[in-house]
Structures are given as structure tokens and as C-alpha cells.
Amino acid sequence: MLIALLVMAGLALALGAVLGYSSIKFKVDGDPLVDKIDAILPQTQCGQCGFPGCKPYAQAIASGEADINQCPPGGEPGVKALADLLGVEPKPLNAEHGTPKPKSVAVIDENTCIGCTLCIQACPVDAILGAAKHMHTVIASECTGCELCVAPCPVDCISMQPIGEHVDNWKWRYPVFEIKQAA
């Protein structure tokens, strides 16, 4: 019995070592091109491009399954940044997927909200707080302005309000790539 336990422990140790070595030796990193494309996209997770979020759209662009002009929140500057990254000609924004809009945030009318939780289920970034049969509220700093919470609301208590750019919410629109210095 003791010999059987020792043999099993030895086999487990040997197989664990082989698996550990294999995970290091054959490690597959993510596609750096997908990460660069994803960094350019606005991260609204709105699905207007026809994909469930910005990362799947970035993967589709990198694999050649999607065009660079399908992101209305990114607008023409986003298309140009993607074209520059990929070394292709910029294209006009594809109107089939929508038109660019000013950045906005969802606002819930607290007097009208019935606490149905449909907006919470629709929000791709968990920016809405609340519980069943209780009033909900939006965490404005987390809201991407995707508008996915507006349609499911049965009492139309959610509105999108544009936000202006100021010091608290201003960001570089697209990543600044390193400028290589001449030696």
C-alpha cells in the first residue's frame, strides 16, 4: 500500500514538473497588434460596430474580419488612428453603424424609476447601482455613454446627457506612441 502511494506521488510530481515546464516553454502571449488596436478604440463597449465590445472588434480588425471604419464613438479621428497604425488608407466612417455623438452619460430620473433592474442587466460596464424594486443610480465616472440601458427601461426614466470636456474628464483621445530619437 505504501509503495503504491509513493508511486502515485512520484508520478504526480513528475507530471506536475512537466506541465510547469511546458507552460513556461510554450507560453503564448496575446497579439500585440490587438492590444494596440484596442488601445485606440474608445472603450465604450457599446456594440455599435457589430461586435460585443471593443476587444472583440480589435481582434476582428487584426484578423481582417472587420473594417477600421465601424466605430461611431471613435469617429473620424479613430479611423485615422487605426489607419496609421495598420498602414492603410483611412476610410470615411461607415454610417450603417451610426454617427458620432458627443460624449454623454446616463442619468436616471429617481422619481420615475421602478427598480426593474433591466438597465443593470443591459449595462456592459456595471455603471448602474440598485436593487430590485429600489431606485437605481448611475456611477457617472464609470458610464461610457453606450446608451444600452435606455432601450430596456419600461418607464423611460433614463436619459443621456452630454458632458463637456473639463479637467476632471479630459483624456488623450488616442495613445501617444513613442517617438524614437535619432542617435
From TrEMBL:
According to the entry, every stretch annotated as the 4Fe-4S domain falls at 29-88
User: Where are the residues of the annotated region Hydrophobic?
Assistant: 1-23
The record's section on InterPro entries has: 4Fe-4S_dom, 4Fe4S_Fe-S-bd, 4Fe4S_Fe_S_CS, Elect_transpt_cplx_RnfB/RsxB, RnfB/RsxB_Proteobac, RnfB_subfamily
Annotated membrane-spanning segments are: none
Could you tell me the Gene Ontology terms of the biological process aspect for this record? electron transport chain
Principal place of residence: membrane
Chain positions recorded as [4Fe-4S] cluster 3 binding sites: 123, 143, 146, 149
- Cofactor(s) for this UniProt protein: [4Fe-4S] cluster
SUPFAM superfamilies with a match to the protein in the record: 4Fe-4S ferredoxins
> Which controlled-vocabulary keywords does the entry list?
4Fe-4S, Cell inner membrane, Cell membrane, Electron transport, Iron, Iron-sulfur, Membrane, Metal-binding, Repeat, Translocase, Transport
EC number(s) stated in the UniProt entry for this protein? 7.-.-.-
What Gene3D superfamilies does the annotation carry?
3.30.70.20, Electron transport complex subunit B, putative Fe-S cluster
Alphabetically, the GO molecular function entries are: 4 iron, 4 sulfur cluster binding; electron transfer activity; metal ion binding
Task: Give compartment(s).
Answer: Cell inner membrane
Q: How is the cofactor bound?
A: Binds 3 [4Fe-4S] clusters.
**PANTHER family registered for this protein in UniProt:** ION-TRANSLOCATING OXIDOREDUCTASE COMPLEX SUBUNIT B (PTHR42859:SF3), OXIDOREDUCTASE (PTHR42859)
Assembly and oligomerization = The complex is composed of six subunits: RnfA, RnfB, RnfC, RnfD, RnfE and RnfG.
Question: HAMAP family attached here?
Answer: RsxB_RnfB
> Can you say what this protein is called?
Ion-translocating oxidoreductase complex subunit B
What is the source species?
A: Novimethylophilus kurashikiensis
Q: Upper taxonomic classification of the species?
A: Bacteria, Pseudomonadati, Pseudomonadota, Betaproteobacteria, Nitrosomonadales
Gene name, Swiss-Prot/TrEMBL:
rnfB
